[in-house]
Design a protein that fits this description.
1% of the residues lie in helices and 66% in strands. It is mainly β. It has a domain of 208 residues: TonB-dependent receptor, beta-barrel domain (Maltoporin, Chain A, Beta Barrel). The protein starts with a strand and ends with a strand.
Length: 546
């Protein structure tokens, strides 16, 4: 048996953030092409091979920054405060006024091969091999104002990843088992260029006395990182009694990470590489860093099938994130290493169906404790990788699906979490008791799918959904303005589906809700910035299957 499948996508828009600066196009603009091709070979009932190729490319303008907490005069930059438009006066939430649009170019290619053998006696061997390579160039203006404040230039190249995993699985009705091994290697070379406060309209206050004859503060760095990862894992499920199953698993992980070719400069607008702060050392030098990290993690799950429609479970699972080098390095003191992050998760839950499976209800409660949680910290224009000693999250999640008639499905979910840092000092500040960044306490989702007409070879369907999220903070200090106070977003889609064609009309963020999804405090420079969510949009899609 031989089969081929090809899928592609192309998305392009003119930019979702309006730019009022004369002659400069709109911002946050998408131009994405993706292709996936698959080849299936099945010469016998006991062997199957699937070869996949993927390609994606993305250009356009990156996310547009939204400046907030603007106080250039208070930060010691009165010349910038005097520039018209530097206070965002007269601009709506989804508008910017910036002369530098920014650009990006991302490209990735990959190949994946999966081999499945049935070895007989209920034993299966699976091999998964993957190779990917990529590169990117990104220039993003950091203020969104008619000033040159904090643009970011990044160039990532020589990016590659190879992964090989082998699994052997087997068993019978009373006992299922799996063992396997994993090997991966990846590498990346990145250069970064950050010119801070280099707007030529800034006066003497933007002369930081570096001696290059220009203004502002310019930092440049480059580094290469290579990593090799190894793992061995095993898992077994044993039916203790009819309906009662115990699953035990373990994984040993080892990561070997090396950073080399690290070099950094500081300067000003006239001489960006005026002072070399870090020189690329030879192998074995103080910043040709090598670190090995290893960890054993385990899991245990006890599940009980009370009936065909009700299942309950209790589980304990451990998670592990390898230690990592700080990538934002401009001084030797910045060359820090974050230790491995670990998480222990305890969960109790129930999954159920009622009324001839027209109602599905799931409920879970969980508690997760973290050790050495890795965080990005904004510190006077730098963003080093730090760790918080202890943190925890506990909460409840519930979801309900109801199918009152075959043509209508209603669903709702509710989540409550209590995310806190328990112990940690970041840049000399005690963050104990603060809410974990990017973690909302409340999340609510509701939706409905209605088949309005059944046309035999096709159908007309309507989908609506809405989600609500409570307050989140984007910095570990829980700065109120560097976050989002909570929002609700509603979406809808009307579809006409035929045998091989789909025609769709859609609308997103129908109420044009203002919300943010990321933010950084740069108050030492007189402002902070947020990345905004997408404003209200309408569109149409056509899909063809062949």
């Amino acid at each position: 048996m031989v089969a081929v499948r090809v899928a592609y996508t192309y998305i392009k828009d003119d930019g979702v953030i309006k730019n009022v600066f004369p002659g400069v196009r709109d911002l946050d603009q998408t131009d994405v092409f993706g292709l996936r091709a698959s080849l299936l070979l099945k010469p016998s009932e006991t062997f199957k091979a699937i070869l996949r190729f993927t390609h994606s490319s993305s250009t356009g303008a990156p996310a547009a920054a939204y400046a907030t907490d603007i106080d250039f005069a208070g930060a010691g930059f009165p010349s910038l405060a005097a520039v018209p438009g530097s206070d965002r006066a007269g601009l709506g939430f989804f508008k910017n006024n910036q002369p530098l649009r920014g650009s990006q170019k991302l490209k990735s290619d990959g190949v994946n091969l999966r081999l499945d053998w049935n070895l007989g006696d209920a034993v299966d061997l699976t091999s998964v091999t993957t190779y990917d390579e990529a590169k990117w160039i990104r220039f993003q203006e950091g203020g969104g104002l008619p000033l040159s404040l904090a643009p970011l230039y990044e160039d990532g190249k020589d990016i590659s990843q190879f992964v090989q995993e082998v699994r052997l699985a087997g068993g019978d009705a009373g006992f299922q088992w799996l063992v396997g091994g994993f090997y991966g290697r990846d590498s990346i070379f990145v250069t970064s260029y950050y010119p801070w406060m280099t707007d030529p309209r800034c006066g003497a206050e933007c002369d930081f006395w570096l001696g290059g004859g220009g203004i502002g503060f310019v930092s440049t760095n480059a580094f290469r990182q290579k990593r090799q990862s190894y793992a061995a894992f095993a898992r077994g499920e044993y039916e203790l009694t009819p309906g009662l199953t115990l699953a035990l698993g373990g994984r040993y992980s080892r990561d070997e990470i090396r950073r080399s070719d690290l070099i950094a400069f500081i300067g000003d607008s006239a001489a960006p590489e005026l002072i070399q702060t870090i020189g690329a050392p030879a192998d074995g030098g103080p910043l040709a860093q090598r670190r090995n990290f290893e960890r054993f993690t385990g899991e245990a799950t006890l599940s009980w099938a009370a009936s065909d429609d009700v299942n309950a479970y209790a589980s304990f699972k451990q998670g592990y994130r390898s230690g990592a080098f700080n990538a934002f390095v401009f001084l030797i003191d910045d060359a820090t290493i974050a230790p491995p992050e670990t998480a222990d998760n305890f969960e109790l839950g129930i999954k159920s169906q009622f009324l001839d499976r027209r109602v599905t209800f799931n409920l879970a409660g969980f508690y997760t404790k973290y050790k050495n949680q890795q965080v990005i910290s904004a510190e006077n224009g730098t963003f080093p990788l730090r760790r918080v000693d202890r943190a925890r999250i506990w909460g409840l999640e519930a979801d309900l699906t109801v199918r009152p008639v075959s043509a209508l499905t209603l669903n709702a979910s509710l989540g409550y979490t209590n995310p806190k840092y328990l112990r940690g000092m970041i840049a000399g500040i005690d963050v104990s008791g603060n809410q974990i960044t990017n973690a909302a306490k409340w999340a609510v989702n509701v939706g409905a799918d209605w088949t309005m007409a059944d046309l035999g070879d096709g159908s007309v369907t309507l989908h609506v959904d809405a989600r609500h999220q409570s307050r989140v903070f984007f910095d570990i200090n829980n700065t109120p303005s560097i976050g989002d106070g909570g929002y609700t977003v509603a979406n809808a889609q009307l579809s006409f589906n035929m045998r091989s064609w789909d025609f769709e009309l859609w609308g997103s963020n129908l109420t044009n809700t203002r919300y943010a999804n990321y933010g950084v405090s740069l108050q030492s420079y007189g402002f902070s910035y947020l990345n905004r969510g997408t404003p209200r949009q309408f569109g149409a899609r056509v899909r063809h299957r062949f």
